[in-house]
Amino acid sequence: MASSPGRGGAVGPVGRRIGGTASFFLPVAEEMLAEVAENVTVRPIEHSGHWLSEEQPEQVLERLREFTGTAGR
Fold it and tell me: Which of 32, 39, 51, 58 could anchor a disulfide with 13, C-beta 3.0 to 4.6 Å?
């Protein structure tokens, strides 16, 4: 992973999926990740807790497809 000049983080893109309905945390998570990475995307996974893949596998797959540009395939 390449370092970002002056930031010491990932150049990106960086995807982060957050479980639950804690929508207040989405902008906080995005801000925190932006401190160490560029091109940050934060998306919620509704109706899940800490076990995103087990609780909402279809939503996780859809978000990953969106992130990788393979949605609808």
Answer: 39
